[in-house]
TrEMBL record:
Belongs to the purine-cytosine permease (2.A.39) family. The lineage of its organism: Bacteria, Pseudomonadati, Pseudomonadota, Alphaproteobacteria, Hyphomicrobiales. The chain crosses the membrane at residues 36-60, 66-86, 107-131, 151-169, 181-201, 221-239, 260-282, 302-323, 335-353, 365-386, 406-429, 441-462. It is found in: Membrane. Pfam families: Transp_cyt_pur. Gene3D superfamilies: Hydantoin permease (1.10.4160.10). This is Nucleotide permease protein. Its main location: membrane. InterPro entries: CodB (IPR030191), Pur-cyt_permease (IPR001248). It is a multi-pass membrane protein. PANTHER family: CYTOSINE PERMEASE (PTHR30569:SF0), CYTOSINE TRANSPORTER CODB (PTHR30569). Keywords: Membrane, Plasmid, Transmembrane, Transmembrane helix.
Length: 491
């Protein structure tokens, strides 16, 4: 009998981890500070961290760019962890379910679209990056151009997707363990590249700069503002990711530190700093070129192979988060987990045959995806911390009934939706992440944080003046809402 109970508990835990059921403390994957730190680091330290580093020198003084990017990542991640990470951690729910308290059960279509665009879209981009990077490594090893033939790239892309499916279909347990090796490996590789740079250039490394006519900013102040904004816009893309990860963490004290340090410092700023100087030294932002150029064909190819293989963990995490959230679409709740992952990867077959198109077109579009979450971050932060005082009714997050506390108007909180949409327009008015055009106000105040603040204040005032007095949204009972031990894990 006891074995049957254990088997049933195991199946329930498996269903919760690969579905939307609230997770209890005993069902969570991350038991320690270090394990969550390494997952955050591994996810943030994908190939895009090296590509971002190649961009930083163009803000002006590369040292200013690195410091500004670090500052932006720290500021943005702190806000995102509070807005998305803490509600999901406390109630063991994924971020789209938590967002129903502010958007309504049907209004969450907006953040759900942003989450899927971010996780699935970037998965395809990393597939393309990995395939073309691996082809370059093969070309170096074979000392020929044969490896760059398109059939080889296609084969590598298809193999990458199969490897991602194989790991992702096992749920979060496997990528938690893999990250414990990949993240330290990323840091070691970056330290090795930094040592090589210092060996070649010595103190002269700090004097490397792009030509003045190629700089995006004319003054150090403008360059710093641009780098800060770049860090903030990058960190805002973590709104749909942070909640999905903190849902798997056991202790509140293990959230903020690993998130901010792992994502902002180790995974983003440190790696991007080394990549910035490496790109300057090699004359190209492409890591598949400068890694091999700096470290030599043998060591460079070995390092690049590890970096590309490590992308598997990043893609697995993104697909896991997308797979959980996409079950908001009711018919997909009945699809087996491994098949669901395969269905999300299926459009990637087209990407495998069009990797160059993916990198040139899709990456430009995805540069805007951080903008999607500017207003959403402001709305969810104010709603959870100020209006609801960190108290939700978990059962009502899973209800699509008009009697639900979070029904608002036909299942949609139009205040949250409209403010989130208008915030995108405001952000783009202040700063365009593709053209890097900045309004004069953004040179001083930035664009991301002011837009988050404005959207949060607008949401607070409208909700206080009109929505809460009307009795919609369950705010009048928020302070006295009870929490069920069957739903909320013991912390």
């Amino acid at each position: 009998m006891s074995s049957d109970i254990k088997l049933t508990q195991s199946r329930v835990t498996e269903e919760a981890l690969s579905g939307r059921l609230p997770l209890r403390s005993s069902e969570r994957v991350y038991n320690g500070y270090g394990s969550f730190l390494w997952t955050c680091t591994a996810f943030s330290a994908a190939t895009w961290a090296f590509l971002i580093g190649g961009f930083l020198p163009y803000v002006g003084d590369v040292r200013v760019g690195v410091l500004g990017y670090l500052a932006g990542m720290l500021i943005g991640m702190a806000v995102v962890v509070l807005a998305s990470g803490l509600p999901s951690f406390k109630y063991g729910v994924e971020p789209i379910d938590a967002a129903k308290a502010s958007f309504g059960p049907y209004g969450i279509v907006l953040p759900l679209f942003g989450l899927l665009a971010t996780c699935v879209g970037w998965t395809y981009v990393v597939v393309a990056l990995t395939a073309r990077g691996a082809a370059n490594v093969l070309q170096t090893v074979e000392q020929s151009d044969v490896a760059t033939a398109e059939p080889v790239v296609i084969g590598l892309a298809l193999f990458t997707m199969f490897a991602v499916w194989l790991v992702a279909s096992k749920g979060p347990w496997l990528f938690e363990r893999i990250s414990n090796y990949i993240a330290p490996g990323h840091i070691l590789v970056t330290v090795v590249m930094f040592a090589i740079l210092l060996y070649h250039y010595g103190a002269g490394l700090w004097t490397l700069q792009v030509p003045v006519d190629q700089r995006l900013a004319s003054t150090p102040g403008q360059g710093f503002a641009l780098a800060v904004e770049f860090g903030i816009s990058n960190s805002l893309t973590w709104w749909p990711i942070m909640g999905g990860l903190t849902r798997l963490v056991k202790r509140r004290s293990h959230i903020v530190g690993p998130s901010v340090v792992g994502v902002g410092v180790l995974g983003a700023a440190f790696i991007s700093m080394v990549a910035a100087f490496a790109a300057l030294s090699a004359g190209t932002p492409d890591p598949t070129i400068w890694m091999i150029k700096l470290a030599g064909p043998a060591l460079g190819s070995l390092i690049m192979t590890f970096v590309l293989a490590a992308n598997i963990a990043t893609m697995v995490i993104m697909l896991y988060l997308a797979g959980v959230s996409i079950q908001q679409i009711k018919p997909l709740t009945r699809v087996r987990w491994d098949i669901l992952i395969a269905l999300m990867l299926l459009p990637g077959v087209y990407v495998a045959f069009r990797t160059e198109w993916t990198l040139s077109i899709v990456m430009s579009w995805l540069s805007y995806n951080g903008v999607m979450f500017v207003g959403i971050t402001g709305v969810t932060f104010v709603d959870y911390f100020i209006l609801r005082k960190e108290t939700l009714a978990p059962a009502h997050l899973f209800s699509r009934d008009p009697s639900s506390k979070y029904w608002f108007w036909g299942g949609v909180n139009w205040v949250a939706v409209i403010i989130s949409v208008l915030s995108v327009a405001l952000y783009l008015y202040l700063y365009n992440p593709v053209t890097t055009a900045m309004h004069p106000l953004a040179h001083t105040l930035g664009a991301g944080i002011p837009t988050v603040v404005v959207s949060g204040i607008a949401y607070y005032l409208i909700m206080r003046m009109f929505v809460i007095p009307s009795g919609k949204g369950g705010y009048k009972q928020a302070g006295s809402a009870t929490t069920s031990p069957e739903v909320i894990p013991t912390l």
